[in-house]
Amino acid sequence: MNSLFTPLSWSDTGFILIGVMNTVTISIVAIVLGTLLGLAVGFLRAESSKVVNVLLGSVLDILRSVPLIIQLILFSTFVGAMGYPLDPFVAGSIILSLYTMAFMSEVFRSGFESVHQSMRTSARSP
Amino acid sequence: MDYEFHWNVVFQNMPELLNGAFVTLHVSVLAMLLGIVIAILLAIAKMNNSKPYCYIATTWVEIARNTPAIFQIYMAYFGLGALGIHLSPYVAVLSALVFINAGYLTETFRGGFQSIPSTQYSASKSLGMTSIQVYRYIILPQMLRRIYHPMTNQFVWSILMSSLGILVGMGELSGTTQRLQSLSFRTLEFFMVAAVMYFIITKLVLISSSLLSRKLFKGEI
Q1: Under an 8 A CB cutoff, do B199 and A82 touch?
Q2: What is the mean pLDDT of residues A75-86?
C-alpha cells in the first residue's frame, strides 16, 4: 500500500456522524416541505381548470424528468449567477423539497380525485 | 442581474453533447435489457421454495432497493478499484445500473406474476392446454399488460440515474457537460442545455412507450 491510502480509523467516525445528521436533517426538511407543498399543488390541480392544470403539470414534468443532480447544479449556479449565492445545504433543501413536491402532488391529486363528486354534493345537502 | 449568457460555445460543442446523449440512451437501454434478464431469473428464484436461491434473490433486491444509486456507482468504480479490479467508467455505471434495475424489476415481475390467480392455470389445464400454451396465451399476455407501465417507469429512472456517471468521469450527457463546462466556465449555459436534452430524451421515451402500448394492447389500457 502507498502512503496516500490510509485506512478508515475511529477518529473518522465524527465526520461520518456529521454527514448522517445532515442527511437526516435534509430529508426531514424535504419530506415536510415537499408534502405540504405537494398537498397544496395537488389540491390546486384537482380543483382548477384545464389551463391551470396544463401549466402546473408541465412545471412538475420538468422537475420529474430532469435528473436530480442536474437540477441541483443548475439551481445552485443559477442563484449564484443572479448574485444571491446560497449555502449548499439550503440550495439542496430547496431543490429536494421541490422534487418531493412534484411526486407528492400526483399522490394528493389522485387522492382528491378518487373521492367521488357525489360525496361532496351529498355532504353539502342539508 | 449582471450575468451575461454566452451560448456560442454551447452550440460549437453541440455534436459532443449529442454524442453524450447517445451514450446516455445507450447505457440505459443496455442496463434495462440486462436488468430484465437478471430480474426474470431473480423473480423465479424468489418464488422458488428452495431456501438458498430465495435468500440470494432477497438479499440482492434489498441491497439494490435500499441503497442510493450513487453509492452503488462508487462501489463499482472506486470500491472494486481499491480491490484491484479496475473497470472503465462505462462498465462501472452499466453494472451499477444493471444491479439496481434487476433489484427493482424483480419485485415488478414477481408482483405481476402473482397478480394472475392460479385458478386460471387450472382452468386452462382443464381445457386441455399444455403448460407452454397456458403461459403463452393466458398468463404472459395478462402479466405483460400489468408490468408494462412499471417497466417504462424503471426505464425512465435508469436514464435519470445514468446521469450519476458525472461522478466517475463517464462520457455520457452529464459527464460530457461537466467536462465541457470545466473547459469553458459556462456552467449555467451547459447545464441548462443538458437539462433540456434530458427532458427531451425522457419525453421521447414516454411517447414511444405509450405508442407501443397502444399497438400492443389495442386500447385496453
Answers
A1: no
A2: 89
